[in-house]
Design goal:
Three copies of one chain form a homotrimer.
Chain A: H1 3-10, H2 16-40, H3 44-52, H4 54-74, H5 82-109, H6 117-138, H7 145-174, H8 180-214
Helix pairs in contact in A: 2-3, 2-4, 2-5, 2-6, 4-5, 5-8, 6-7, 6-8, 7-8
Amino acid sequence: MGFDSVLKFFLPKDRVFYGLFEEVAASLVQMGNTFSKALREEDLSKRDAILRTLEDHEHKNDEITHRIFIELGQNFITPFDREDIHYLATALDDIADYIWGAAKRIVNYQIDDQYNTLPAFAEIISKSIAAINTSVYALRDMKDLRAITEACVLVNSLENDADDLLDSTMLKLFSSNISAVELIKQKDIYQMLETVTDKCEDAANVVESIIIKYS
Amino acid sequence: MGFDSVLKFFLPKDRVFYGLFEEVAASLVQMGNTFSKALREEDLSKRDAILRTLEDHEHKNDEITHRIFIELGQNFITPFDREDIHYLATALDDIADYIWGAAKRIVNYQIDDQYNTLPAFAEIISKSIAAINTSVYALRDMKDLRAITEACVLVNSLENDADDLLDSTMLKLFSSNISAVELIKQKDIYQMLETVTDKCEDAANVVESIIIKYS
Amino acid sequence: MGFDSVLKFFLPKDRVFYGLFEEVAASLVQMGNTFSKALREEDLSKRDAILRTLEDHEHKNDEITHRIFIELGQNFITPFDREDIHYLATALDDIADYIWGAAKRIVNYQIDDQYNTLPAFAEIISKSIAAINTSVYALRDMKDLRAITEACVLVNSLENDADDLLDSTMLKLFSSNISAVELIKQKDIYQMLETVTDKCEDAANVVESIIIKYS
């Protein structure tokens, strides 16, 4: 019996969830950073190579999420409400899905991002994921409630920024001379990126509702 | 200690939820009426000015919804199942979000609503919100169950009307000579308005499931 | 008192749910098969006549789902967690809604499905529904857990296939010469069909989470 197994044996089973959520959050931070880095890359073939690596991230994320659901099924006692674990895991999983969905379309569609909307979205998304990461890590000891609340408020405000970015970009596109087909492609990608920030907001709302209950 | 505080002190804490849901419902009724009024306005700059006021309504709605979630976190005892409060608050909040989302796009895109689809949607939405308002107010004493059920049936039937309106409008647009870009704009707005009625249906379904449990 | 009533009287009330879920699953199998059959039909007016019959299926499905929610409200004891019943019923209902939504648009839009995307989607959907049917029937006695798990894994893999089919079709369409309006129509239908497989995955995930808890 190795040290790990001994540790696991003595570890209260319900504390497993903190570690798993921290793993998902860390993996999302990596995704956000990779996505941002790719979109700052000027060489398009290098950019696409980086974007393609996000598929592995997304698979890894799927696996951790799956483990959360298995633990949820097997543990009668959980550190916070069962439905909050379910909602949080689902929202974090959706963040990864939509980032990969947008990345795939950026590679496939080869749009002309003339207003630099993509790097602007990537920055909002990175900041939003960083704030979620902070709030998820703070869940473990619940000491710094103010930090959690501030992180959640930030995620909400970043979602508004993404909304405004989508609106202003669409207005520019509608009054530009691009073809309808090009417009369909760009709208598709930008909407997916805006949805990433919606899912970040969902995650932040769950975290906020957890700390309200336990404070 | 003012009268309000005294009242709040004696008020069973769980009854707070009725008041909050009634506030959301009343605010939605106002939104629905303002939206209808705007779309009957022939002067477009007046119309847009009215539509822009919906942003404040949406913010107010957000705040009440936030208070519901805070109360939900702090109250161990709730008048109906915790998840029903969560679902109902979310559905009502979504109604406000999608109305404002559509209003913003109507102002921004300046579409040519040649088949008068917008006022037709506004009428369906107003009726649907009125029925939800009836059902939410009836939750407090649970006396008139028939009225609640009838209101929920009406919301479901109005959702079907919105679905048919979307279908028939899209068919007309597809066989018209409008440009693809104009078609994209109109489809975007009409789909958001149809989603408003989906969210109304979600809210009505929650109310119905509550009265089934307590009757 | 007929034999049925006697049976119902002695039947533990919570077992009612198995029968209702089996009814929904069987009705979905019929929908999937009818949809596939229609899309293999070369005579378009015959095809449309078959597709139109799906509306009745969808109504029937609605009614069974409604009965599940009524039972859920009236039964204090349920065979598995109340929220799992809620999630499963909702996911199964969404499958029917999106199939009918797509069928209606196929009839209305008369698209030129030049890459045979529709029959390919219909096949994926039929297989996915068949796997869900297997897993729902196996819930009743929970004996063959391996069969349930395999069915759920299959549904997940079929969802990936649908995703890939949507991606590759969109790529072909974007590099084809079809008009933007035709592209909008086709994208609308194919996305709805991909959503059908998302809803199948949601249903499979609920079934999987149920067997984890009870095994």
